[in-house]
Design brief:
The protein has 3 helices and 2 strands. The protein has 71 residues and is mainly α. A hairpin with a 5-residue loop joins strand 1 (22-23) and strand 2 (29-30). The relative contact order is 0.17.
Length: 71
Amino acid sequence: GVLLGVLTRESGGDPHALGPPVESRGGHRERPTGLFQFLPSSARRLGFNPHDPVASAEGAARYLATNLERY
């Protein structure tokens, strides 16, 4: 499904994946992390630990559902 496609594209299924540093909303640099490559600040704002594969998948599902409704 969609979540598996996002996971495969973002991290290749590696729960320890780290992306390149990017500028966050707060103006500081962070590295996307985990299966779905959330910025740590985004994961905090959404209420989950991006290093926990189950929590990250649940957070990604909520995030995608919210964006589908919004856009």
